[in-house]
Amino acid sequence: MKPHETLPYTALPDYSDAERIARSQAFYEAIKSRRTCRYFTDEPVPRAVIENAILAAGTAPNGANHQPWHFAVIQSPEKKKALRAAAEDEEHAFYESKGSEEWLEALVPLGTDADKPFLETAPYLIVIFGQRKGGINPGEMKQNYYVSESVGIATGMLITALHDAGLATLTHTPNPMKFLNQLCDRPNNEKPMMVLVVGKPSADATIPVHATIKKPLDAISSWL
Predict the structure, then answer these.
(1) CB-CB neighbours of 26 under 10 Å
(2) CA 184, CA 194: separation in Å to the nearest integer?
(3) Distance (Å, rounded) from C-alpha 144 to C-alpha 192?
């Protein structure tokens, strides 16, 4: 590699092969209980939990270390109500005319529709933005790279961190999403990528049976 300023690589635990297998199995057993939730309580969640999860997401690998993401956390009931109203307008249009027959058919086993009460009920909505311009220092407007890939990885880590803290999540992607820039006071050069609903599941929360069907290892991997 070309000369550059360096530090020693972070020390990792020196596990035995048996310990690595056990830990990887334990993690799989823990994370496979993660389910998308559509039924939330309004019970408060400490802000520190959300902050720590966002900090964890901020460690994600990304293009040129520009960290091209912004997480706008909505707690305000007024903001949540406005987001729900705008999102449901788009959702009604999707279910009534915009969505293809094939797409709508694929959603039938999940039972989804245009009504999104969880957008008001859950204590937090995290609107995730990708930054086309930015850089590592505040105020920079450099070109960012691999924005979608970087934000996708960070979002996965955010969901995992929240699940590890015992919270339920839901990924919501109204289309179009440009109204989120104004709602969250974000500049036009940022692209809203997703709304992540966060909170505790209601006591009577359910999941679709269809959502429990996961592809086996030999269907999602190959060994060359």
Answers:
(1) 10
(2) 13
(3) 15
